[in-house]
Each structure stands twice: as C-alpha cells, then as structure tokens.
Hints:
- The chain has helices spanning 3-7, 13-20, 24-33, 45-59, 73-81, 85-89, 123-136, 144-152; strands at 92-96, 101-105, 118-122.
- The chain is mainly alpha-helical and 156 residues long.
- The protein has a 3-stranded antiparallel beta sheet with strand order 2-1-3.
- A hairpin with a 4-residue loop joins strand 1 (92-96) and strand 2 (101-105).
- Helix 4 (45-59) crosses helix 7.
- The N and C termini lie close together (5 Å).
Amino acid sequence: MSKIEKNIQGFKPGKVCQILGVTKQTFRYWRENLYPENDKKEFNLDDIFMYQFIKSFIQVRRLMVKELLDVEWQCILDELSRMDKQEKQSSIAVFDTIEKKFYIKKSFSDFDPSEEKYVFLSLGNIMKRFNASIYNFVDDGSNVISFEKQLIAGSL
C-alpha cells in the first residue's frame, strides 16, 4: 500500500464489520483477543487487511480462533508492511499449528506441505478477498471512493 493509504484513518468498527462481512460481536471478539491494536476507534486499510488475513484463516482453512490467540500479530503486520504488492501476491502465509506462529514465504521450499502441523494460504488470494471486500462496500460519503480509484489503478 502506498504511504498515503497507510495514513488514512476513518473506518469506524461498524464500517469495518460491513467491509469484512462479519458481525459486530465477531469483530469485537477479534479486537479483544487477536489483533494487537484493539483499542483503536478508527481503522485504516492495513488494519482491515489484517482482519481479512485473520478471517481467511478462520473461514477458508477452518482454524479455530483459540488456535490464533497466542499469535504475535504485530510481527506479521510489520513483515507485510515491508512487502510490495507483487511480493504479497506471490507469497504464501504459513501457520505452524504447534508453534502458533505465522511465516510469510515465497515458496514451499522451507515447509513440507504434507506435514499436518502447517496450514497454508496464498497471500494473493487473501488480497483478492480484501480487494473484493473494499469494492463491494458502498459507503455513505466518506473516502471509500478514493480507495476504489486506487484499487482500479492497481496500487493495492
């Protein structure tokens, strides 16, 4: 994401729930138990992407929320923020269910996909879900229109 997008705030929790397609109770639980900045009143696109990351592993890979409680989410956010769009699209998110740790890798070379302790998900697929969530969100006059223009331009 560009520097401009990273600094844009303004999505209140109710709007984030609409974007992600989750209930307020689910989002509140994730905020209280999973994501490191749970006291925020407004969220930017990086925050929403992290919640999409969490949602993807829960819904697509059927992880239980309790499996994700000890994850150091800030480390993942820091690593993802250093990556450009192309790197993210071609990378794999790997969750070690024993160590309760995520890894972001360019290939399966460091991991045996047949090992049951690893759960994999393409970051490119997470990005597609994220972009679709933003595209499908119809806002009532805030700055979502500018985000849509940036998405169309390919900056996300």
